[in-house]
Queue: 2 jobs
Job 1
Amino acid sequence: MATWSNFNFQNSASPLMEQIIFFHDHTLIILIITTILVSYLMMSLFFNKYINRFLMESQMIELIWTILPAITLIFIALPSLRLLYLLDELNNPLITLKSIGHQWYWSYEYSDFNNVEFDSYMIQFENNNNFRLLDVDNRIVLPMNNQIRILITATDVIHSWTVPSLGVKVDANPGRLNQTSFFINRPGIFFGQCSEICGANHSFMPIVIESISIKNFINWINNYS
């Protein structure tokens, strides 16, 4: 989860989030190099005394400053396209979870099991026993090291189901079913929130995922049913 003074990404809990962080770092390096180069050229132009009154045009320099940015953009675009296709890929999911956005709470249905459905409301902050504005009464319980498919929709207005540490952000639109998948590679509790302004209590519909082993997940399903 996010903590005070943390300006970086949250620690990833899925391979997709790792790839997103790698792409961010890759793009940031290119931007830093470009910024330093352009700043150096501008400063040298300000302070040197070179003058050429007869230089009207130079096709070579124009060719260079057209081709170099194009090559730079290719170095950004190719990993970006690869990542977009990776995010859309769906590989034989073990479990399908359906998430329904309401004003202002989430409902969840485990479509592969009978009678496993519940509403998830934010709970009140109590003496540091939970996280303020982030904890819920009914958490999503999912097995780690398995491919999970999630179907997302809404009943009233547009919401957005977002869990940063998993690299998932999908809009929940009324009358439309959106789909994505993720793979949780470690146990833990992962927090998210609605990231689409959806009304007065938009800030008060958090998402909590509890990642456990497949054996404990089966026991949880049996006990729930």
Note: The chain has two domains: 15-48+57-88, 95-224.
Job 2
Amino acid sequence: MAPKKPTPSPAAAPPSANRSQHTSASAAPSKPSASHSKTQTPQTTPSSTTSTSTTAPKLAQQINALTNTKTATALSKSAPRSVQEAQQILAEMWNSYVDKTAQRVKLLDTFMGFLVLVGVLQFVYCVIVGNYPFNAFLAGFSATVGQFVLTASLRMQTNPENEKEFRGTSDER
């Protein structure tokens, strides 16, 4: 009876041998040696390749056709309705704002919109060009934000709907 050969431990095996035992997503698979390449390479015939390659696109086309039909049907039923509803809601809000809001409040809203635009432009300029004099950007942006907050406070005080909360203040602030 022949003595058994000791099997090498994984630690004693060369690094290329360990790769096949411990695979991970980041480790590259090892290439098979020349002696094993003939046994591991599958033999394909041109007829099997063409039948698979023609079946897959046909199947994909059928799936896409069914999906697109269902999606188009669902969109044609729901999209125009929801878009029309959204437009109707926005139109009603705008008409209500124009009809019921006082002229002073509209003026303050316009100024607040201008302040938002200035703040956005300052920020975009800082991102694109750079903020070399950072103190200048910080001062300009914080002044814009501060002016917006003070204008919002003035808007709340001068709004006729909030008369009960601000009885002691005059309209000529």
Note: Helices lie at 15-21, 34-40, 46-100, 103-128, 134-158.
